[in-house]
Amino acid sequence: MGRAQNYDMDGSADQYAVVGHPVAHSLSPFIHSLFARQTGQSLTYRLMDVEPEQFAERVRGFFAGGGRGVNVTLPHKVRAAALASELTERARLAGAVNTLAARRDGTLLGDNTDGAGLVQDLTVNLGMPVTQRSILLIGAGGAARGVIAPLLALRPQRIVITNRTAERAAALAAVFAGLGEVQGCGFGDLDAQSFDLIVNATSASLTGALPEVPAGVFRADTFCYDMAYGRGDTPFVNWARELGCRRAVPGWGMLVEQAAESFRLWRGVRPLTAPVLTALAGRATPAG
Ligand code: ATR
Predict the structure, then answer these.
(1) Measured in angstroms, how far is the CA atom of residue 204 from the centroid of ligand 1?
(2) Average per-residue pLDDT in the chain?
């Protein structure tokens, strides 16, 4: 397997960063340092706390100073898409970028590895098939949008997008209608439906809230996935278990898998994720 060049002309390690606001609790530096050690890549990876108004200037400055790549997190993912000279197809469909990479000619490629990270965690790490399964996606913001095309690529039986604000769910479903069976509705329209897989893509967990979908959508054998993660189980994971779901997991695996996809784009090698997930599980820090 090819390996990207490890050192700049002056012999210093290649520079990477995660750009967000706030970003202090991001685990990306920890994850990428483990990837680098595991694959024998020499790089530095730091935190960049950048206010929205300064995003373009600071990121351009980072690359002008020799930076090779950045991860982009809240609230900058849509801004990062505007900054890129070219977008991958999955970033274009997501309408957002979580990974920027410097190309040889100095221009920036924008990618979005979030959906691939979710799909990899579900299907490989957790053994949850998506093909021919019915999926309920809760939420219609940027986090939901980023995973729809990668899920549809696996040919589920259908995806129902449900959202507190029903119109946003319908609008999002319309965007992806050409890629597969996808509908949008409000929480109140879900009665009498149940699903094989339920993915929580709302930001409700950040405030300890729960999306008020009817309890009837959860069956004992419904696989519940919360894209949020934190110390211990998230409110959504706890709720799904209380409702009798046998399998409900927080999004740690998606976090590590999207990082591995970014690392591959930058370095030409995909690190193993299992040891990093194990290291994270043993790490007593606040997540973010
Ligand atoms: P993100 O990029 O994280 O998706 P966003 O674009 O602000 O952030 O979207 C947040 C999503 O979480 C939306 O789907 C929002 O629902 P609304 O469109 O109705 O606002 C959803 N959300 C946030 N808090 C919620 C809550 N307490 N209950 C249900 N849905 C919630």
Answers:
(1) 6
(2) 93
